[in-house]
Amino acid sequence: MRAVGTFTIGELARRTGLPVKTIRFYSDEGLLPPTERTGAGYRLYDTRALARLELVRTLRELGLGLAEVEQALSRQATVRDLAVRHVEALDEQIRRLRLRRAVLRAVVKRDSELEEVKLMNRLASMSDEERRRLLDEFWAEMSEGLEVDPEFYARMSSAKPDLPDDPSPEQLEAWIEFAELIQDPGFRALIRDMSTRHSEQRKTGEQPAIGAAQQEHWFSWSTRAQECLDGGITPDSPKGRELAEEVFTASASPSRDAADPAYRRELAETIAAGADPRAERYWTLLGIINGWPPFPSQAAPAQWIVAALKAHA
């Protein structure tokens, strides 16, 4: 004969809505020890066991494992401590799920092949620290063994790619393209060559005047070049010569003759390297990744200026 106020597993199941199989499993695992047993060996549970079962169900629905539930019930760990640990684990799981969703959306958009899908997933799964380290290694290699302006290269490498926890397909695609770009041998050769030119100028004591000239005049030059483009004026025209002469003169350091053909060819090549569309793409992609306001492309007018310089060198 069983005590008043006790329940069989079947009655617990009806009261809680949990399957008999689940309640028996919890009992077998020690999470819900029976209050007593009948003469035939059937397990019985009282109201405290019913409340304990509701607590077990709540903790399991929140995603805690059996071991964590046991720790909470035996007071080896507080529910708060377990919740903190579980929130951290969930946050990481959610971050990874969001990245997977973004990868799949990008796959659908790009109609990617298997090898590209594998690459996209690998790049997307990188942590923020891994992404930043990849960029740091890129800039370290671009200046290794060269006498460069440390402040300039520190500024260049300080802008890091920071994907949000829930990146859009566009941001994820931008990060994948950005990672591919900084690992591309052609782009690395371009930036390394620019760094080498910069280093040689510093070694000879010649200040890179083009840098100052660009900062002071480039917007004006670019605007005029765009006007020429819009008007169908070619770089080898008188307008092109006028702008080229202005660039040659403004960029010449005191030790260089703006009319010297060698200087003009050198300057044209230097600006051509800086005006390479891949250099602008670098910043465009970084802006998409980090959610910066978009900026108008300067690639076309920059290429027009380079063509004008070469035409009148």
Task: Explain what this protein looks like in three dimensions.
There is one protein chain. This protein is mainly α and 313 residues long. It has two domains: 9-77, Orthogonal Bundle (Multidrug-efflux Transporter Regulator, Chain: A, Domain 2); 125-311, no CATH class. The chain is built from 15 helices and two strands. It has helices at 9-16, 20-28, 47-61, 66-73, 79-110, 114-124, 128-143, 150-158, 169-182, 185-203, 209-230, 238-251, 261-274, 277-290, 299-311, and strands spanning 36-37, 43-44. It has a two-stranded antiparallel ribbon with strand order 1-2. Helix 12 packs across helix 15 (299-311) and helix 13 (261-274) runs antiparallel to helix 15 (299-311). The longest helix is centred in the N-terminal third of the chain and has 32 residues, at 79-110. The termini are far apart. The mean pLDDT is 86.
What's the helix and strand layout?
Elements: H1 9-16, H2 20-28, E1 36-37, E2 43-44, H3 47-61, H4 66-73, H5 79-110, H6 114-124, H7 128-143, H8 150-158, H9 169-182, H10 185-203, H11 209-230, H12 238-251, H13 261-274, H14 277-290, H15 299-311
Antiparallel strand pairs: 1-2
Helix pairs in contact: 5-6, 5-9, 6-9, 7-10, 9-14, 11-12, 11-15, 12-15, 13-15
